[in-house]
Design brief:
single chain, mainly alpha
Length: 102
């Protein structure tokens, strides 16, 4: 199996989105697709990170049922991670808008 990506099975019109469409448009679509996929991967990585952190903080010993203290700890931990993530994301968005307006 090769690690390189090949489009050998596609014609030039397939790669550019069809006859008459520019390569620039397909490049832009590819970049947008890659950006979305990167964001999905980052979200998944973040979910795994706070799941691991909250598990380590809240789980004393695994059992067949969650007691109310452990459940409350997990819910609060995840809620705080989400709050902080939203705060940071919103702050970056504000900074980008501020810099774009200059």
């Amino acid at each position: 199996m090769s690690d390189s990506f090949s489009l050998s099975g596609f014609s030039d019109s397939d790669r550019t989105g069809g006859p008459g469409l520019s390569s620039d448009k397909s490049d832009k679509e590819l970049q947008e697709f890659l950006m979305i996929e990167k964001q999905k991967a980052q979200l998944n990585a973040q979910i795994h990170e706070f799941s691991d952190t909250c598990w380590d903080m809240c789980m004393d010993k695994p059992s067949t049922k969650l007691d109310s203290r452990t459940e409350t700890c997990l819910v609060n931990c995840v809620d705080r991670f989400i709050d902080v993530s939203l705060l940071v994301t919103n702050r970056y968005a504000q900074l980008i808008q501020k810099n774009a307006g200059m």
